[in-house]
Amino acid sequence: MRKHTITAIICLAGALVASAVAGASFLAMRKPDVIVNGPGVSEKKMLSDWFPGLKGTPGDTEVYILKGADDGASMLILGGTHPNEPAGHLAAIVYIENVVPKTGTLYVIPRANASGFTANDPQEGAPQRFTIQTPNGPRVFSYGSRATNPVHQWPDPNVYIHASSGQTLSGSETRNLNRGYPGRPDGTLTEKVCYGIVQLIKQQNVTITVDLHEASPEYPVINAIVAHPKAMTLASDTVLGLEMQDIKISLEPSPVNLRGLTHRELGDFTDTLPLLMETANASQGRLRGRTDEALVLTGKDKWYVRAQKLGRLYVPYDEKGHPIEERVGRHVTAIGEILTSWNLEHPEEPLEFENIPGYEDILAKGVGAYLLPAPAK
Amino acid sequence: MFYIYLAILAVVLALTVWVLFDTKKFSLQVTAAMVIVPLLLRLLMIK
Q1: Chain centroid to CA A371
Q2: Which residues in chain B have Cβ-Cβ distances shorter than 8 Å to A12?
Q3: B4 touches chain A (CB under 8 A)
Q4: Residue ranges of domains in chain A
Q5: pLDDT 10s digits, B3-47
Q6: Which of A15, A329, A330, A371 lies 20 to 30 Å from A339 when distance is taken between CA atoms?
Q7: A12, A174, A189: which to substitute to probe chain B, counting the most B Cβ within 10 Å?
Q8: Dihedral, CA atoms, A188, A192, A194, A200, nearest 10 degrees?
Q9: Model-level pTM greater than 0.90?
Q10: How far apart are the C-alpha atoms of A82 and A117, rounded to whole Å?
Q11: CATH annotation of A31-370
């Protein structure tokens, strides 16, 4: 055998070994995170129960139903619309594992873009997972991609045209769940998930929908609530309630010309009151340094501290960062304030949930104090 | 469209393997081996 044939075989073997190792690592991300049914969970369904077109697809996702003893209004919490924004995902899980509705019904979709949790964004260097320490041991959660896994929806068009408005965006936005509403039953996988969520809202007559996000510190809409015009009174009261707790938060109207987002399309196409909330996540920002699990959990990044000193950020940033406790605490507390505001405005149709962790408690005890023990394997 | 994409991918992967065995230049062989990894993972719909 000639020398270059031998080296070719060695190189090919190396490529196959590297592919096997990397492939095993990527495939491991397809295993969904453990979420434990809390005391308030009365039923767990799948989104395909509202839109059968999702059944058996990577877009189908769990819907946790927490039903109060008495009828009332209802709320839908969307976590994981963008799986690289972990505070939204975790806040939804904290609600599933702790909250007990007294009146009204709570629907929680913790992994709204389930496909996005099965991959990382290429070239971002982000960790695949992060660990939250709890009194009962570690709980591991996925840090996914902003968009649907390209293995599940490909190829991207050069230009993404939003179906109902004709709005044009970059082609990769075709896999962004929060650009696909109200969705289409015969559209892409991402559009089908949007359509499924809209069907849930319509069929269950969901009163309030809260979509939990995080934003880069250099993005103007941060530590904010974005509200559709018809949800503006509810959002205003919520902001006042949060300010009374010394939680600084801004209120942004949903732009009329930015289409495909929950806070615009769910308000236009359904009867729900849609709100979207943002916290500060350095691990998805463009100015960040090393991207690892510590950055996801602490938000400490010297380059963001420097950017703050140069006046380039829209959120205060110092050496303390923005830890996951603060970010999850803001989301959990803001939802509690939405409920309080709703009940003040609509005492005839109450939404009363018990056992919502307090902001100061989450800051002091950590998110792990509000996560249940994972079942033994 | 998706299957056309996969077919193009398979052709590029086959050509890369052909280059790996055809060239006498070791640096090009190593480069070809590195290129094979993402092509193979995508063809198998892993990444």
Answers
A1: 17
A2: 17, 20, 33, 36
A3: no
A4: 31-370
A5: 998 999 999 999 999 999 999 999 999 999 999 999 999 999 999
A6: A371
A7: A12
A8: 180
A9: yes
A10: 9
A11: 3.40.630
